[in-house]
Amino acid sequence: MSRRFRVAVWRSMMEVHAAVLREIEADLADRHGLSVNEFDALINIPAGGVGLRELTDRVILSQSALSRLVDRLETRGLVVRVGAVGDFRAVDVELTAEGRKLARSAARTNAAAVERAFADRLSEAELEYLHEVFSRILGGQAED
């Protein structure tokens, strides 16, 4: 298999990702007034809250960018910052009731966009195969 083909496959995967992400972004913005990063942060805050440092590990943003994003979500009344139990220097982030409601609704919108723009275009066998392949790549296992 040529290097050119391998790169072309990679490029195709990136193009599919970009196309699906554009649909998700449009749906989240239109229906919920959320960016993809805001949605990502909201769905990664568990019911009991999460430390700001741990949240940085859960989302794909720098700590300073996440801090600004949490500021925006707090201004909108979707999250609150509270002092972390046992560490007066740390801050936890918790969803408000409105934030929990929005996160649930936006998760349904996200799932519908993924189905429409990606999963519905593939057979069950193709989805299972992609799951296997991506799991292997993420797990760092090389194919023999």
Annotate the secondary structure layout.
Blueprint (H helix, E strand, L loop, with lengths): L2 H30 L3 H8 L6 E2 H7 L4 H13 L3 E6 L2 E9 L1 H21 L6 H16 L5
Antiparallel strand pairs: 1-3, 2-3
What does this structure look like?
This protein has 144 residues and is mostly helical. It has one domain (3-139): Winged helix-like DNA-binding domain superfamily/Winged helix DNA-binding domain (Arc Repressor Mutant, subunit A, Orthogonal Bundle). It has six helices and three strands. It has helices spanning 3-32, 36-43, 52-58, 63-75, 97-117, 124-139, and strands at residues 50-51, 79-84, 87-95. The chain has a three-stranded antiparallel beta sheet with strand order 1-3-2. Helix 1 (3-32) packs across helix 5 (97-117). The longest helix is centred in the N-terminal third of the chain and has 30 residues, at 3-32. The radius of gyration is 18 Å and the shape is globular. 17% of the residues are buried. The mean pLDDT is 92.
